[in-house]
Amino acid sequence: DAGITQSPRHKVTETGTPVTLRCHQTENHRYMYWYRQDPGHGLRLIHYSYGVKDTDKGEVSDGYSVSRSKTEDFLLTLESATSSQTSVYFCAISVGGVTTNEKLFFGSGTQLSVL
Amino acid sequence: QQQVKQSPQSLIVQKGGISIINCAYENTAFDYFPWYQQFPGKGPALLIAIRPDVSEKKEGRFTISFNKSAKQFSLHIMDSQPGDSATYFCAAPLTYSGGGADGLTFGKGTHLIIQP
């Protein structure tokens, strides 16, 4: 998992509370992604970023927001957590290929439980 | 709407056997087909990938077979070992309008168990 640090690794929170997950990279990559992983659903893209302050929605963005004020940090916020957001959240960076979006390198994930 | 459909959901293979996982896609504009491997408690890691200009790519015991006309690609693990026990995901590039960042869309995963 060199180059990507996700924090916290585990979090338990209550329904209705705000939660922020952090992804930090040390290699100055332009493209960063947030995915969630759930049994039976695989990995689904929540939001992605293509530069500082440049972000866009993915497949399952409802209930989530993101921010990227520095190249190295990509934050995922659950404004008001719900039980359906209990999941494992992965941050990824694009490490290049023929086009820049292809080879993704994933962090170790954050296990989030919303009670 | 799932853009890549993966099967089977789970698979048990004896040590030394061949593990085969299949993936079907709809979008003929896809031009890159990777497989990711994930061990418990870890993030997915790129295992092997193929482009549609070739029908097969081999890296060690891992082979991707690609059938463009059928819009299918599969992962073959030869001489399967207990250490290959993991979850495997097929994927293809997403296409969005903004910034060219795209990312990947993933299948639902196959839980592979190699029995000693």
Structure notes:
The complex is a heterodimer of chains A (about 120) and B (about 120). In chain A, the strands form 2 sheets. In chain A, strands 2, 4, 5, 6, 9, 10 and 11 form a 7-stranded mixed β-sheet that branches. A 4-stranded antiparallel β-sheet of chain A has the order 1-3-8-7, with no helix packed on it. The model of chain A has no long low-confidence stretch (mean pLDDT about 90). Chain A is about 0% helix and about 55% strand. Chain A has about 120 residues and is mostly beta strands. Helix content of chain B is about 0%, strand content about 55%. In chain B, the strands form 2 sheets. In chain B, strands 2, 4, 5, 9, 10 and 11 form a 6-stranded mixed β-sheet that branches. A 5-stranded antiparallel β-sheet of chain B has the order 1-3-8-7-6, with no helix packed on it. The termini of chain B are far apart.
Task: Itemize the secondary structure elements and their pairings.
The complex is a heterodimer of chains A (115) and B (116).
Chain A lengths: L3 E4 L2 E4 L5 E7 L6 E7 L3 E10 L2 E4 L6 E7 L2 E6 L8 E8 L9 E3 L3 E5 L1
Parallel strand pairs in A: 2-11
Antiparallel strand pairs in A: 1-3, 3-8, 4-5, 4-9, 5-6, 7-8, 9-10, 9-11
Chain B lengths: L3 E4 L2 E5 L4 E7 L7 E6 L6 E6 L5 E4 L2 E6 L4 E6 L8 E8 L10 E3 L3 E6 L1
Parallel strand pairs in B: 2-11
Antiparallel strand pairs in B: 1-3, 3-8, 4-5, 4-9, 6-7, 7-8, 9-10, 9-11
